[in-house]
Amino acid sequence: MSSFPKVAVAGVGVTRQARRLEGQDTLQACLEAARLALDDAGMTFDDVDGIAGRWPGPGGTVFHPGSLDWGSMLGLPLRWISDTYPQGIPAALEAAAAIEAGLCSSVLVLGGQAGELGEGAVAPYTRPDNEFVATWGAFTAAQFALVAHRYLHTYGVAWERVSRVAVTIRNHGHANSEAVMFGRGPYAIDDVMSAPRIAEPFGRLDLCLANEGAAAMVITSESRARDTGRPVVRIVGGGCEWHRQQYVQPARYEDVGMIGQDAARRAYEASGLTHDDLDVLQLYDVNSFEVVRQLEVLGFCGQGEGADFLDDVDISLGGTLPVNTDGGLMSHSHIGWGAPTLRIVEAVRQLRGEAGTRQVPGARTAMAGGAGSGAQYYNLLLLQRG
Amino acid sequence: MRPLPQPSELTRPFWDGAVAHRLLHPRCDACGGAFFPPHAVCPACRAAAWSWQESAGRGTVHSSTVVHRAPQEGFATPYVLAVVDLDEGFELMTNVVGAGALDVTTGRRVRVAWQQVGDSVLPVFEADPEQEDASA
Ligand SMILES: [Zn+2]
């Protein structure tokens, strides 16, 4: 029996996800995603009394940059806002607590990016502008590589046995018409291993995208979600975990290799579920190492045993444990601060039976994850149909 | 253009030390713990009193990655990004340079070297010719 607040994801909405959304800006894209999520929930903006979203500008208030600006522009009297960093899972968990406490009734979570990314350059959020980071040519993928390298050294695992998850996830995106990388592939392990190296052990195909689009969701009470007549997807548990200052303080495998394990333990406890109950996983696949690490964190295998686990368990569509069915951040989409919500959206679609050709038959319980070891924090959400 | 450190009041002694080829780090006056980067209080015991100490500049590579694609212009690729555990008990993110740098990996003993970039001097590391690895 779940001890978690009785809340549900009442609606989800995503814009087109593309390399670049020409002629759009972040505000327009987020607004479109919000409208779609509200339509999906059978609600309107007037039903919203809580918002969690980064304000992209132009303009904005001086002292409360973020959610309040959305409320102002939309003309909504708000009862609750969260300037949660980052969006997605922590926002959903905070919204659940706020709704349970009676602080508000329905929360809109939104985020994304459009008209922001330049050609070729890495996304600005991947290279922290700090004297102890930028000076050394460090960036997020390289910091995750430092953790992955230490893992491989510690457990004596061959990179190929980890990197193969990129084949599976990218092939999911290859088959998903909504994915940025739709039609690209299919890939084999040789393609992934021979792709240009970025920061060893990572090659280009081991890493997530940086593209444009927006995503939104509506969180409300379970009873209110039932009134909409839409299939109900309940949030039955979740948790967050932070370690040290991300990126400025180097991430050490010994400290962050199992980050998320405690959050998962708490989420399982609150929901009365275990990893065995999960029918489909939407991991935060910023790189292939993180997929293997998160399988260990969630309890599917022991620490350092992720590659062995993959020998026995098929994580592809049609396998016993489908992972990142839409192609994940590697192949479907990574839209900056909106990306965590995309993982939840795919979980919701799977649980509603609305995932089309990539539907996991009978999926009843799902997990969505956010962040990772190189970032030194992790969070997860457990969701259930009905 | 490669980004160069823009020191704050808190970090300026570190970069000034580098100009004089001295590797400085905070050490807590209360618990004696070394830490990095500098903070207002010691992360181990929260004491506000700490002092800059000079390191001998010798340490062991905790982890490293060979970067083939730099995040911005001004870096010659490939280069080595590493976390080095200094013998005094603090850690630094840094670059490994010099002969055989691309082969320097976890466990390798390294020593500080000084790299002039523009008006800045950066503490980087090179393989320690006197010690192969931490267990030796
Ligand atoms: Zn202390």
Automatic annotation (TrEMBL), chain A:
Residues 261-381 form the Thiolase C-terminal domain. It comes from the Bacteria. Pfam families: Thiolase_C_1. InterPro entries: Thiolase-like, Thiolase_C_2. This is Thiolase family protein. It comes from Nocardioides hwasunensis. The lineage of its organism: Bacteria, Bacillati, Actinomycetota, Actinomycetes, Propionibacteriales.
TrEMBL record, chain B:
Residues 15-50 form the ChsH2 rubredoxin-like zinc ribbon domain. Residues 52-115 form the ChsH2 C-terminal OB-fold domain. It comes from the Bacteria. It holds the Pfam family zf-ChsH2. Coiled coil: none annotated. InterPro entries: ChsH2_C, ChsH2_Znr, NA-bd_OB-fold, Thioester_dehydratase-like. Signal peptide: none annotated. This is Zn-ribbon domain-containing OB-fold protein. It comes from Nocardioides hwasunensis.
